[in-house]
Design brief:
397 residues, conserved putative lor/sdh protein from methanococcus maripaludis s2 fold, Elongation Factor Tu (Ef-tu), domain 3, 4-stranded antiparallel beta sheet, 6 helices, transmembrane helix, transmembrane, MdtA-like_C, RND_pump_MFP, coiled coil
């Protein structure tokens, strides 16, 4: 027996009586065994437990059968819904009066108004030099005085002849001649007066006047300018200051508009909305654009500038219809629809026809009578016949 065998036997003999800690080699063996056992258990669990993908269908099926979705529903009722037609167009004077030279014209001496001025009927807007015409009128006035003097002389001579005819100093023929002379003198007075009146009327026409009260829109004349009857327009006036919007509407929309229809007009660049009404509907349609014009009368306001642009909301009518929020209306290849709930709280698809769309919501022209429970949200995730848990909500109006 060698040295190593003697050592092993000595250690073996010593084990029964050893009550202390086990040797280091044995502790290592125990630890390694425990680690191997834990790994074995983990491997067995991994192999025997089904994967998440395998377990998901069963869990989903179990959840689908056990969970009922909660949806918000409302009974829309029926509200008065206005039919609104939107249009855009330009602003203009309702009655735009171009003013030019009425008389023979001449040198402009004064211009008395500016654009934006209010004028009354007959007010002088500009004057034309009339120095020559004034001299002519004075000459004619003197001619009237001469004719009147001749008429008075003729009348005096006739009166004297009438006094002498009974005494035989004047013949009846002489009286007749004096009567004719008197009548001719009176006629010359009337001619002279007519010529004077004509000259004065011509002189009055040298003043450029407003034909009616209104607002001056443009001025195209300055002092020192030579004007004549063939000149372009010197002033433009909006009669009474009345304005209008010429709304461009499609052929279909124009057919729904009537005279007297109220409208709201908002000029570009302004946050103000002005009230007006349609006073004329175009009798023709542009063959190129397929549009017509609805002319909306407006009272004067500083924000209304002819030539500017504006938008209009024209009230074409009103009806009593169900009104829903946009989230309640769905659409697909078959058209627009909503989901309503039956007595068993099951989803039922209902096809609808949409009316007016506004900030207040979507009006339903056909498909609902307003007494149904309509699903407001999550309708896109429902299927026909699916049972739901409804939560009733009151619609804000």
């Amino acid at each position: 027996m060698n040295y190593e065998s003697s050592t092993i036997e000595a250690e073996t003999r010593a084990l029964p009586g050893d009550v202390g800690s086990p040797p280091a080699g044995r502790r290592r063996a125990i630890i390694i065994g425990l680690v191997i056992a834990v790994l074995a258990v983990a491997l067995a669990w991994y192999l025997l437990t089904p994967s998440a993908e395998e377990a998901a269908p069963g869990a989903a099926a179990k959840g689908a059968g056990a969970q009922i979705p909660t949806v918000t529903v409302a009974v829309p009722g029926r509200d008065t819904v206005r039919s609104i037609i939107s249009g855009t167009g330009s602003l203009a004077a309702r009655r735009d009066m171009p003013i030019g030279v009425v008389g023979e014209g001449g040198l402009v001496t004064r211009v008395l108004v500016e654009p934006g001025s209010w004028v009354r009927e007959g007010q002088v807007l500009a004057t034309v030099d009339r120095s020559v015409q004034t001299q002519t009128a004075e000459s004619l006035e003197a001619g009237v005085a001469v004719a009147q003097a001749d008429a008075r002389i003729a009348q005096t001579e006739l009166d004297r002849a009438l006094q002498l005819v009974d005494r035989g100093f004047v013949s009846r023929a002489d009286v007749d001649r004096r009567t004719a002379t008197r009548d001719a003198a009176r006629a010359r007075v009337e001619v002279a007066r007519a010529q004077l009146a004509e000259a004065r009327a011509r002189n009055q026409r040298l003043d450029i006047r407003a034909p009616a009260a209104g607002l001056v829109l443009t001025r195209a004349v300055e002092p020192g300018q030579i004007v004549s009857g063939g000149n372009a327009v010197l002033f433009r006036i909006a009669m009474g200051g009345q304005m209008e919007m010429r709304a461009q509407l499609s052929e279909g929309d124009l057919a729904r508009v009537r005279t007297g229809t109220p409208a709201d007009v908002t000029p570009v660049g302004s946050d103000r909305t002005l009230k007006g009404e349609v006073w004329q509907v175009s009798p023709v349609i542009d063959p190129q654009t397929r549009q017509g014009i609805a002319r909306i009368a407006l009272a004067y306001d500083p924000v209304l500038r002819p030539g500017g642009f504006a938008s209009a909301q024209i009230v074409a009518g009103a009806g009593t219809l169900p009104l829903l929020p946009e989230s309640a209306v769905q659409s697909d290849d078959d058209g627009n629809y909503v989901y309503i709930l039956d007595a068993q709280n099951q989803a039922v698809r209902r096809g609808v026809t949409i009316g007016e769309v506004s900030d207040a919501g979507v009006s339903i022209a056909a498909g609902l009578d307003g007494s149904e429970r309509v699903v407001l949200t999550a309708g896109g995730f429902l299927a026909p016949g699916q049972k739901v848990n409804p939560v009733l909500r009151t619609l804000d109006r």
